[in-house]
Amino acid sequence: MANLVLFEVRYVLASICYSFRCISSPITFSWFETALYWLMSFIPTAFLAIPQLVYMFLDTESLHEFVTVLVPFTEIALTIVKMVLCNVKRSEIISLINQVQTEWMEYESSMRSEIGELVAATTKKVRLFTIIYTLLFGVLGLEFGLLPVTRLIYYKVFGSGTTNYTITLPYTQRSFYSIEGTTSFTITYFWIIVAVYLLVMSLSALDCVFDTLAMHITGLFKLLNAEVDQMSVELRAGVDAKQMRQTFKRLVLKHKTYLALIDRLEDAFSVYMIFQFVTSSIVICVVLYQFTTVFGWNGETIKTSTYLPGAIIQLYVFCWYAEEMTEEAAMVADHIYNIPWYLGDIRLQKMFLTLMVKAQKPTGVTAGKFYLITLQSFQQIIRASYSYFTLLSTVMQE
């Protein structure tokens, strides 16, 4: 299992063809896969984003209609931007995954029970999260894509003989060619479903890459804190001072390495996160407005009622795991503080103090270098979205 310790990250990479050699150790960079992923990014751009953008600016006749199309377009455009950003950062992300795996494998072979329990708990948590998150957004995405077909089946099975239901494209858009014919409509619908599938897998997979990497880095800090706590036992047992200094030097190097992992995660996903926060606030605002304008149980109601929890869950998960990583890194100082430092020599006490001061410095992932991502950031986005919603409602009433 050593080579599969980050199997959950590799799984989501494979699910979007991010790396065909995702089960090998380490993951290798391939120009062929890079080109293939650019092609994958082009399909939803050509069959979803551009037609919707053209429709919004050329065919919408009211602000309400414009807002209705804006929600799905924003989510689609966001995911495409994520795909582009992650492909630009592909080599950095793969290198980061390989380094995290290298650090993680060192603990996997440990014979200490508490270390093994932490490794097993983190691995189980990450795999469960990946499965649930991917299935959740897979269901939501395919629901939007297959809603017209579902309604057609419903009317065919439960509707009266006089029911006249015409199937439409799942997303309101303007095509650059006629789709009046059965063949052209069917082909267009097929490619839209393909585009939706690529978007769903990319959305869930790229989010999972960030979240699972954050969980593994958090786990590394937990393991580091467990090793710091072990030093308390060794100090009380009267272990040789020179050996204690060597042990602590090793922990200092690990702490430096783990901080570097957070910095690399920040470099790879900082721009990614600012796009996520901006678009999430737009989506939440517009969906709240749609709730006030959609009446009855129909297709628009279903879309509206599923967009909102999806956007909120996505934003909350980012903030939760980013803050968890930040807090665990800060707890290194607390664990050092609780060491019986007075049992060590002067040189060891100075080493304790130096690392404790360094560990107290706030660290974490930021959104576009503007602010640290925490649960407080989530609260601010929700409040800002509600403020935008009230402003939009006021404008529409006037």
Measured distance between first and last alpha carbons: 63 Å
What's the assembly state of these chains? single chain
Radius of gyration: 25 Å
Query: Which structural class do you get from the secondary structure elements?
Result: mainly alpha
Q: Quick check: average pLDDT? A: 77
Envelope shape: elongated
- Low-pLDDT segments: 1-8, 14-20
Count every beta strand, where a strand is a DSSP E run of 2 or more residues: 2
Characterize the biggest β-sheet.
Answer: 2 strands, antiparallel
Helix content: over 70%
Beta-strand proportion: under 5%
The helix tally amounts to 10
Order of helices and strands: HHHHHHHHHEEH
**Strand order across the biggest sheet?**
1-2
What does this structure look like?
The structure is a single chain. The chain is mostly helical and 398 residues long. The protein has helices at residues 7-15, 31-58, 63-88, 90-108, 113-158, 182-236, 241-291, 299-337, 346-359, 375-397, and strands at residues 366-367, 371-372. It has a two-stranded antiparallel ribbon. α6 packs antiparallel against α7 (241-291), α6 (182-236) runs parallel beside α8 and α8 (299-337) runs antiparallel to α9. The radius of gyration is 25 Å and the shape is elongated. 35% of the residues are buried.
